[in-house]
């Protein structure tokens, strides 16, 4: 049976968790059956897909009232079987365009746990979702989307995210990764890979790290990523006198190598869906310390593959990180347990198979 023709709608294909998932899914399905519409920006991942022969269209959001018309033109040209929207904005414009075009089934994946906005656009979006198949990446995301579930409409489903395992099947040794990056062999490296925005918790992590350095002088914090709060993060580093102990790397393309060099991965977010970077860190065999939000407690077994702490409990994060610094053998065991879990349960192949089965059910009216 031929694969359904699917168009993904995203705000952008800049480097990020949901965006990486869309890119991996596109590559996994092939350019004959898959294309992407970006609302705001094509981005680095979008340009990479274009270089591989994928159609990546830019609708643009200026002026916003014309965006639906531009998306509709793409749909009329390509006539997909399924329009797969990612998060609220993509669904608002994508579902409206699909309804005007006719004959296109709509799927929305809810990646984070932020609830629908209580605005006119949110109300319109909920109305458009009456015939949309909603998929949540976590039980928390499913819970916040419950108000969009309509009697007689499709029930909200849950499909976990997955990552491509190829970069993590034969990783370099920690000492070799550090040598290639020019980082000290004997340091205790804590890493965060995430957009630098307030909800990711970089500033709180810096406050915790300032205390850790006093107890573990060889500690270094590695920050990979970029974003709106980078200036605030760099100012906080200077304020705390941590310039020699914090590496701010910016956007990077060598994340598997960076993760291989770490001792522990930390993500103290205020809210999350199912972070791709968390799955990547676990696939790299690193123990993790994360906040108890979104799907992270579903992915990380506390005390087995890492530690799960309340999102604003600085003392809990400090205890967990120092525990891993003081007990490297325990850290290694946790890292291996997390690696095993991701390879078994959170790989892109399984996630894509689940979506393919859903696409087929949608086309068959089930």
Outline the structure in words.
With 366 residues, this protein is an alpha/beta fold. The protein folds into 2 domains: 6-162 and 347-363, Glycogen Phosphorylase B (Rossmann fold); 166-345, Rossmann fold (3-Layer(aba) Sandwich), CATH 3.40.50. The protein has helices at residues 17-29, 43-51, 67-78, 87-101, 120-128, 139-144, 174-181, 202-215, 230-239, 255-261, 276-283, 296-299, 314-326, 328-345, 348-363, and strands spanning 6-12, 34-41, 56-58, 82-86, 105-110, 133-136, 157-158, 188-193, 219-224, 246-250, 264-267, 288-291, 306-309. The strands form 2 sheets. The protein has a 7-stranded parallel beta sheet with strand order 3-2-1-4-5-6-7, sandwiched between helices. The protein has a 6-stranded parallel beta sheet with strand order 10-9-8-11-12-13, sandwiched between helices. Helix 4 packs across helix 5 and helix 7 crosses helix 10. The longest helix is centred in the last third of the chain and has 18 residues, at 328-345. It starts with 5 loop residues before the first strand and ends with a helix.
Secondary structure elements and their pairing?
Layout: E1 6-12, H1 17-29, E2 34-41, H2 43-51, E3 56-58, H3 67-78, E4 82-86, H4 87-101, E5 105-110, H5 120-128, E6 133-136, H6 139-144, E7 157-158, H7 174-181, E8 188-193, H8 202-215, E9 219-224, H9 230-239, E10 246-250, H10 255-261, E11 264-267, H11 276-283, E12 288-291, H12 296-299, E13 306-309, H13 314-326, H14 328-345, H15 348-363
Parallel strand pairs: 1-2, 1-4, 2-3, 4-5, 5-6, 6-7, 8-9, 8-11, 9-10, 11-12, 12-13
Helix pairs in contact: 3-4, 4-5, 7-10, 8-13, 11-14
